[in-house]
Amino acid sequence: MNLFNLTKMPFSFHGGWDTVVTVHPSVIKTFLLLVLPFSLIPPATLLYAGSDHASMFQISTVAVRWQQVALVFFIAELLTVPLMGWLIKTIAAEHKITVDFKETFLLAAIIAVPMWLSSLGLAVQDTWTMIAIGIAGLLAAASLLYHGAYVILKMDDPFEAQSLSYQAFAAGAVIWVMLCAYIVLPLMT
Length: 189
Fold this sequence. Notes:
Helix content is 77%, strand content 0%. The chain contains eight helices and no strands. The chain is elongated, with a radius of gyration of 17 Å.
């Protein structure tokens, strides 16, 4: 999967998804080539924001605290993708769709990409731009989930794909909010 295909995937059931479906990467390959490198972006931007413009967040804490939060956040990200893969698999089973964990893990990894990229907003020193980038990441992830569920889970009905993606996105949003709260709360103490 390349980033050019990723830009088409939120807007189409075929643009980029056809390539993903034919590749069938293993869980380990998806983890090593997609999840691991992209999971490094948020901790790196956290460390940058903490060292460059932490005062903008009205948080005064030592650099070691930023490093601790970044490390634990990185580990949490690595655990969240398989958790979302399992969740999508479980929701698919409720919709009477049989799918391998390999496919749901791939879908979870792909939908996480805009979230990882949106963390680059932490490098911006404008609060509203940072918020806009975060919201854009959420919207792109939701659209990727909808289009990806339809294609990867081999669904026939776009409305069923929409229902499944709503359920998975709601659970994923709760997890995302908990991760964000994890960032803010330890830094405030």
